[in-house]
Amino acid sequence: QLITILNGPNLNLLGQRQPEIYGHDTLDDVANSCTAVAAQFGLRCELMQSNHEGALIDMIHTARQTSAGIIINPAAFTHTSIALLDALHTFEGPVLEVHISNVHKRESFRHSSYVSLRADGVIAGFGVQGYSLAMQRMGHILAPKG
Ligand code: DQA
């Protein structure tokens, strides 16, 4: 089974972008660690990123056909996008939301998430390790004997 890992705007710059908040690991590092965890459960994963809201929506629509679960860091769209929420409502499998930083410790506009209205679980403030923890959770949900 395939797990789609979606990343929103500015996360292509992970590793260079505000490293004091988001750390030095890159999205390639995230893909590698998630692939290793997924394999422990007999799962595969594909990591994608876009700076464009509509492209992320299209990726969710594609995942409806291809993927058993979605791990998503919607980045700033977390706090603004009803359209992403609606797209996630069309997806039937588990959805896990990841934030690298502890959004609750930051500006108040980061405290609310449209995506959380659909997410089955949320991780925030665990750094990039949050992605592999979410993948571990996905494994337990989808392949409980793995
Ligand atoms: C983020 C938190 C968001 O508030 C921010 O806009 C991001 C990244 C995180 O991973 O901590 O771009 O989703």
TrEMBL record:
Substrate binds at residues 73, 79, 86, 100-101, 110. One of its GO terms (biological process) is aromatic amino acid family biosynthetic process. Its EC number is 4.2.1.10. GO terms for molecular function: 3-dehydroquinate dehydratase activity. Pathway: Metabolic intermediate biosynthesis; chorismate biosynthesis; chorismate from D-erythrose 4-phosphate and phosphoenolpyruvate: step 3/7. It catalyses: 3-dehydroquinate = 3-dehydroshikimate + H2O. It comes from the Bacteria. It is an enzyme of class 4 (lyase). Keywords: Amino-acid biosynthesis, Aromatic amino acid biosynthesis, Lyase. Signal peptide: none annotated. The active site is at 22 (proton acceptor), 99 (proton donor). Pfam families: DHquinase_II. InterPro entries: DHquinase_II, DHquinase_II_CS, DHquinase_II_sf. The record marks 17 as: Transition state stabilizer. The keyword Lyase applies. Homododecamer. Catalyzes a trans-dehydration via an enolate intermediate. Belongs to the type-II 3-dehydroquinase family. This is 3-dehydroquinate dehydratase. The lineage of its organism: Bacteria, Pseudomonadati, Pseudomonadota, Alphaproteobacteria, Rhodobacterales.
